[in-house]
Amino acid sequence: MPKITISTLDKMKAAGDKFVCITAYDATFARLVSEAGAETILVGDSLGMVLQGHDSTIPVTIEDMAYHTACVCRANTDALVIADMPFMSYSHEADALTNAMSLMQAGAQMVKMEGGVWLSDTIHSLVERGIPVCAHLGLTPQSVNVFGGYRVQGRTPKQAKSILADAVEIQDAGASLLVLECIPAPLAADISRKLDIPVIGIGAGAGTDAQVLVMHDMLGLSTHQPRFVQNFMADSGSVQEALRAFVTAVKDGSYPAEEHSYT
Ligand code: KIV
User: Fold this and answer.
1) Active site residue 258
2) Which of the four CATH numbers 3.40.50.2300, 3.40.640.10, 3.20.20.60, 3.20.20.150 does domain 6-260 have?
3) Distance CA 244, CA 101 (A)
C-alpha cells in the first residue's frame, strides 16, 4: 500500500470509499494495524484508560503521548498517524503550538483536539505553521465531567445545531479531519454530507466517511463494551484476523449496523 496522506483520504471521501482508523499505542500493534490495511492509526489518549488503568483520559500527559507516538511511528509502515493532544495541553494557543510540536517531532502526521468554535484560532495557527489538525466533536471524553458521564450527545435540536455549527467552523479554520463520537446516526450522516473534509465516526452510525474503534474494545478486551462496539475477536482465530475483519466490515458497509448506532 502506498503511504497514506491527507490527499489519499480526501480522494477516498470524494469516491465514496470508506476508510479505517484503529487506535494503537505501541510498535507491535502499530505494525499489525498497518499490515491489516487500516489507512490511519490513532495514538489516542484512550491509552489513559486501556494502558494506564485510569477511569478517564484526564490524567494523560503530553510526555505520555509523545512516548507512545514515537513507539507507534517506529513500526508503522503506511498508515497516517494521528496523535491526541491530551487534556489541557491546547487550552491556550501558545501551549498548543509547543505541545503539537512535541507530537509531530515524535513522528505524528496530524494532531487531534477535542472542541469546536473555541478552537478555531488555535487550529488556524497550527495549520499555518505546518501542523495538520483533526478535530473531535460530540462525546468528547476530556469533557466527561462537564457532561456528567459518557453520554450520547446531539439528541436535542439545540445540541445538534451546535455540533453542526462547530463542524463547519473547524473546517473553515483549516482542520483536515473530524471525529464525531456518540451522536445520533442521522446527525452524523448530515454533517458528513455537508463537510468537504473526511469525517470519522465512532458510535455515530454508518453515514460517516470512516470508522474508528479503540483496539482493546474491538478485540473484546475491555471490561465495559459500549453499544457501538463489535467484538471482532469473537469470530477470529488471531488478532491479525480480527483487525482485518474490522477493516473489511467498514469497507463493505457491514459495520456499523443499526444495533451499533444511536437515534
Ligand atoms: O482517544 C481515543 O482513542 C479517541 C477515540 C475514542 C476516537 O479519541
Assistant:
1) no
2) 3.20.20.60
3) 32
